């Protein structure tokens, strides 16, 4: 394939990915405003979760198409993407289930701990998916990129948590719940994956 045509196709896929992400942000923002303005309660929350799920699947498909076109896609990455989609669904169902159960039955004792643990199951599945990606990836360059991205995400979490923790200790910022660790790590991981990689 002509290099100019190939570059043009890659630029098109990059634009498509940016467009899908931008559409997701606009759609979710509009849905959140509608949920608050019209007081949609549980129905609105479920609709937002379904909307986010649909966009997540679209982003994964567009991202996979882009990776295939650039020669950066592997079978292990495909399996990882599917596992992460399942883990995300388990997380959302666990979170909504825990909130619903807490409001409905107001549990105590061991049952309260079990219900509080439900959203964490999806996160555990995510960690297993990341570990299996590194174990199953046959391309050394791709494996190295996955490990570097994970370390960047972990470093982002450690640095931000430490800085925020000291600020909180001195009463400069409000408390942030510890479950925020996963989104912060995910942001660092995503940022690292957006950075250009180099083959040695």
From TrEMBL:
Superkingdom of the organism of origin: Bacteria
TM ranges: 17-38, 44-63, 84-101, 113-135, 147-167, 179-196
Assigned keywords, A-Z: Membrane, Transmembrane, Transmembrane helix
Name assigned to this protein: DUF2178 domain-containing protein
């Amino acid at each position: 394939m002509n290099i100019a045509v190939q570059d043009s196709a890659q630029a098109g896929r990059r634009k498509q990915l940016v467009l899908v992400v931008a559409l997701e942000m606009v759609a979710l923002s509009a849905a959140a405003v509608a949920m608050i303005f019209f007081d949609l309660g549980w129905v609105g929350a479920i609709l937002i979760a379904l909307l986010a799920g649909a966009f997540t699947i679209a982003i994964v498909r567009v991202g996979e198409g882009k990776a295939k076109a650039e020669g950066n896609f592997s079978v292990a990455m495909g399996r990882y993407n599917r596992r992460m989609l399942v883990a995300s669904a388990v997380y959302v169902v666990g979170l909504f289930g825990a909130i619903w159960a807490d409001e409905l039955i107001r549990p105590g004792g061991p049952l309260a701990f079990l219900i509080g643990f439900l959203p964490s199951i999806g996160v555990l599945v995510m960690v297993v998916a990341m570990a299996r990606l590194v174990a199953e990836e046959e391309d050394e360059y791709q494996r190295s990129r996955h490990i570097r991205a994970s370390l960047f995400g972990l470093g982002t979490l450690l640095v931000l948590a430490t800085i925020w923790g000291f600020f909180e200790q001195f009463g400069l910022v409000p408390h942030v719940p510890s479950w925020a660790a996963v989104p912060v790590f995910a942001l660092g991981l995503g940022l690292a994956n957006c950075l250009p990689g180099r083959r040695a």
